## 1
Amino acid sequence: MTLAPERASLPSAEAANPAVSLSCRHCGATYPLSPTHVCIECFAPLEIAYDEDRLRTVTRESIEAGPRNLWRYVGLLPAGHVAERRVSLDAGWTPLRPAPRLAAALGMRTLWVKDDSANPTHSFKDRVVSVALTAARELGFTTVACASTGNLAQSVAAHAASAGLRSVVLVPHDLEAGKTVSTAVYGGALVAIKGNYDDVNRLCSELAGEYEWAFVNVNVRPFYAEGSKTLGYEVAEQLGWRLPGQVVIPIASGSLLTKVDKAFGELGRLGLVEPTPYKVFGAQAAGCNPVASAFARGVDTVAPVKPSTIAKSLSIGNPADGPYALDVARRTGGAITDVTDEQIVDGIRLLARTEGIFGETAGGVTVACLRRLLDEGRLDPDVETVIYNTGDGLKTLDPLVSTGGPTATIPPSLSAFEAAGLGDD
Ligand SMILES: *Cc1c(COP(=O)(O)O)cnc(C)c1O
Ligand SMILES: [Zn+2]
């Protein structure tokens, strides 16, 4: 953990920033807003704490008057209160698309896809990175770093390039080619580690003890995590300021799932939506299912696993927010489940063929888990549901190559076309 007490608190803490401190999620100890993420009393993770009165100055109108990106919610975020200092590629305000054909295929009444593949680097990570790098810049850092399963690396490299920050990103060496190329192009340092994500993460924590850099998912993680709340706010606003009855969210570290719940809770508490009940469902790959397996066994502790799945963006075997994700699913009456690699590929194809949305493997996990939850009667087909597509399928072509060739390969002649049975019947 990098402690830089001499640069202590955020310069924006005086201004409009509603964030006032970091607080321990376990024992409640508080710390100044600074680049640190672990409680020194009990080693539990820290989280941003807000001044409730400042949050209450946010209205639907003030949000609607904001930019068409995640910064419209700045009044509910811990950084970026001086617009010129934001690190932004205009992430957020992605489409919430009705999915009637997917709903019909699954026997559901009302289904929406929150399509976060529309972000600048084509995954939801642009939200968390924009907030984290903005906080990093406000805290005085000039180098930003991260451990990543791929999407985070690309987003950090892109945002750092746009802001003139130096970036150092660490990834497992067996990353999909598409993710490597599309990270390297931005010009920061891209370091491939001979190990899995959990090895990469361990090295990253060690580096964080050595260098005064902003490590997106280490010392500035509390700021990073708050960016995920915008995926909750946006869905509520796009539904006309109300909460959906059910949501299905993919889990890697579990942070996104817990922050969508936090966002829904805040909106209700602040009177921005009617605080109607909702159920949160989590989706994992069977080849990396530590949270789903704890849920199935009815236990509170999340036992680490060694990941082996095509869903590499979700391959975190030792998820930091796993226990909190379990809490959310249980408290709201949801569930956490998992699906095989074969079901993931089917999920990707089903979403593409019914709605014209090509999601990455994480999207396939979500669609396939939705189907499983319906089959098992855990998710109600008659209750309005939102599923999160968190990344673009072009990033993870490899697992589909064997299933995605041409319908026919023919010579350039009409007769060959007809002989292949491709005309009208
Ligand atoms: C990182 C990621 C997630 C989930 O992230 P959490 O670590 O659980 O917050 C989901 N989908 C994609 C595509 C991701 O890259
Ligand atoms: Zn503590």
## 2
Amino acid sequence: MNRYWSAVVHGLTPYVPGEQPKLANLVKLNTNENPYGPSPRVLDAVRAEAADTLRLYPDPGSNRLRAGIAALHGVAADQVFVGNGSDEVLAHAFLALLKHERPILFPDITYSFYPVYCGLYEIAFRTVPLTEAFEICVDDYLTPNGGVIFPNPNAPTGRLLELAEIERLLAGNPDSVVVIDEAYIDFGGESAVSLVARYPQLLVTRTLSKSHALAGLRVGYAIGQAHLIEALNRVKDSFNSYPLDRFAQAGALASIEDRDYFESICAKVVATRTRLVAEMEALGFEVLPSSANFILARHPVHDGAELAAALRERSIVVRHFKNPARIAPFLRITVGTDAQCDALLAALKALC
Ligand SMILES: *Cc1c(COP(=O)(O)O)cnc(C)c1O
């Protein structure tokens, strides 16, 4: 207990990000970063911002970037909100759109930041168990609620919910906001952005951290009808008017505009994922079907914690979750380069 702390701070259980270990020759497969660098055009754009103009505040509305994102998705600029990583976009969405009388709903196995935001903003929530096969069952969410949020594909399972099922959720849930967190949609799934025009309660969030290889730049965005975006802007402008600095605005725009590079690195990750899954299965692992840039896999004999520790001794870091208990036997492995995956497979061959 610290007598200087507020009661809110005493009650917080903060999110713990995957570690960024400082090991030599590290094979880093623990935080779903992209193994390929960002587009060379991003680096040029960021370098060009290292200029005298840094003494001036950036555009508080990130208007050029938002126009670029709007053009990419075929929506209006007032249907786009940008933030300092999609974590910030999500935080604002929790306060602006998900804080009501009724509890919000999200899966029992999902992005572990959601309950943290609920703690910060004092939002009631109820978790909904995934099925035996670790799938989201839409019927479970067709009940009065203060809002619904989950990633699609879900994390850390990697499992995708078909767009028709998202639409069924929206059609049966007209009275509260549904947030679809599409952090991993670029690795194999149909985006719900196409439903925004027809569903006034839908907010779709995206990040440049994974598929654009820009985790270090901190850019995320949301797409929804203008009335939802206005709520996010009200929170943003009550918190920090300049969430994206000059480097982030310029670099993110360059990345969005270099479609060929983006598609080439996504295709490489997906090809490596296919091979990694096949080889893990050949080693006896059960691998959940993944539409993301990571897989969730368990060995019938060797426990997740044991394997994660043994891999770490070989300078290979993957993610292991002690909680919830249902995923404790699993490892969550980011899809790296082919060479990184070969190193992982060689180590697992020796261990299993
Ligand atoms: C990585 C991740 C985010 C956050 O991404 P940032 O834009 O880097 O803040 C959000 N949701 C899910 C499900 C993620 O895995």
